[in-house]
């Protein structure tokens, strides 16, 4: 499964001919959360003329929805959705709020404005690729720790937790496809002295700057 979404919400604002456009990009854990976010934004920005949006959710059966919210048909919601599609993002909502400045922008001007505001919000967002992973819990003697630490550092393996008591205990976050290889390597390096416990599959996210984290998978995919 490959799914790229947002690690956190982001915002972008701009002004064109005295109309203010505020773009928000929001990750969704549930499809129905889009309605809650829209209600919240409409309440916070109640003086705005339009709250145009698009959301995309799902994997095998991708659901999409968009709205021009009173702007001329095809000038707002669909351009926002097109930006999301081009970036191949999923499980997110993008809302562009407009405060009307008194000057009509025309259909082409509106398409450009809503496209730019949506793209700006997504450019400001931290992206996250979700993948199946496992947590490898390794207990080993101190005498074997140095070699393993060196290998983990060189390979960029994410250590969730380290505990140094009578032995060394490490909790490693690994992609599911790499877990068997690492189990075999650790047993070889420690001559079988390491004890290894493997968790059931979990979901992890790799964010833009390389950080790994355990994640809740969006519901209903």
From TrEMBL:
Record-annotated UPF0029 domain positions: 138-193
Organism encoding this protein: Alicyclobacillus tolerans
Pfam families: DUF1949 (PF09186), Impact_N (PF01205)
Gene3D superfamilies membership: 3.30.70.240, Impact, N-terminal domain
GO BP terms in the entry: regulation of translational initiation
GO cellular component: cytoplasm
Name under which the protein is recorded: Uncharacterized protein, YigZ family
Impact N-terminal domain ranges (all copies): 17-122
Family: Belongs to the IMPACT family.
Domain of life, per lineage: Bacteria
Source taxonomy: Bacteria, Bacillati, Bacillota, Bacilli, Bacillales
């Amino acid at each position: 499964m490959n799914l790229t979404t947002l690690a956190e919400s982001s915002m972008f604002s701009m002004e064109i001919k005295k109309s203010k456009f505020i773009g928000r990009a929001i990750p969704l854990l549930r499809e129905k959360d889009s309605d809650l976010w829209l209600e919240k934004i409409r309440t916070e920005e109640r003086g705005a003329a339009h709250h145009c949006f698009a959301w995309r959710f799902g994997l095998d059966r991708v659901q999409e929805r968009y709205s021009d919210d009173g702007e001329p048909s095809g000038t707002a919601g669909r351009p926002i959705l097109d930006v999301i599609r081009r970036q191949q993002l999923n499980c997110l909502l993008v809302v562009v709020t407009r405060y009307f400045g008194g000057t009509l922008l025309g259909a082409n001007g509106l398409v450009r404005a809503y496209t730019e505001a949506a793209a700006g919000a997504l450019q400001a967002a931290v992206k996250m690729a979700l993948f199946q992973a496992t947590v490898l819990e390794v207990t080993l003697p101190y005498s074997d720790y140095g070699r393993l630490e060196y290998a983990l550092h060189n390979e960029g393996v994410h250590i969730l937790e380290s505990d140094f008591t009578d032995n060394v205990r490490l909790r490693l976050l690994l992609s599911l496809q790499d877990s068997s290889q690492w189990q075999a390597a650790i047993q070889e390096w420690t001559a079988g002295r390491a004890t290894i416990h493997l968790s059931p599959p979990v979901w992890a996210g790799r964010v833009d700057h390389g950080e790994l984290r355990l994640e809740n998978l969006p519901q209903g995919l």
